[in-house]
Amino acid sequence: MKPFSTMPADVKENIRYILTDIDDTLTDEGRLRAEAYTALERLRENGFVVIPITGRPAGWCDQIARMWPVDGVVGENGAFYFRYDDTSKKMIRRYATEDELRAQHKVKLAELGELVVEKVPGCAISADQAYRETDIAIDFCEDVPALCAKDVHKIKEICTEAGTTAKISSIHVNAWFGQYDKLAMSARILKEEFNVELEQVREQVVYAGDSPNDAPIFGYFPNSVGVANVLEFESTIEHKPSWITEKRGGAGFAQIAHGLLSVK
Question: Which of the four CATH numbers 3.40.50.2300, 3.40.50.1000, 3.40.190.10, 3.40.50.360 does domain 2-96+180-262 have?
């Protein structure tokens, strides 16, 4: 992981797309502060395509797509993308799975959530679960006292044994049925909404993140950037980002924006 401040000017000049995690990448201690929000706004005003890529629920993503200075959002770890069309005043929603299958999975995931809470004392169903359409989120440190790493991995193990795909974020273990992921849905939104093949623009993308569930995307993009708090997972993260900021969370994202805008 090289200091982001040393990214060459010609590499920065080539960047056109900003994909970013939200929790602990744009936020600090659960809050989206003015510095990070302004960074999103300045990037979009200067012609960058800006798309948050998050594990957060559909209900939140509807609001993000409508009201944030972004070009769309990928939510629930790749289950869908939402994009608000300012001209038609309509929300575009695209899902990885069909409506009927999502409804069936929702029942099974609710049962899985009850099992996890029973087996791992101290965890809880995430407070944002009511707004989710495709996954179960188990809180291990957002609104509950932080669990140890062993218990977090036990949550993931129970979910995996139930046949789900399970990922650990900085605050939740998210589990879902199906093989979709953030990277596949990122490729889909770029192709369907911007007529761009992701493989052809890999070097024009900055992906910003902070945790183990960002690892596959860190590994895919040559110019992935971790905000400084990614160092907390340095020993366990499978693929490390190419670059790292000096600052944590939203301040780190603002550093990325400032660096990219400095060569415009």
Answer: 3.40.50.1000
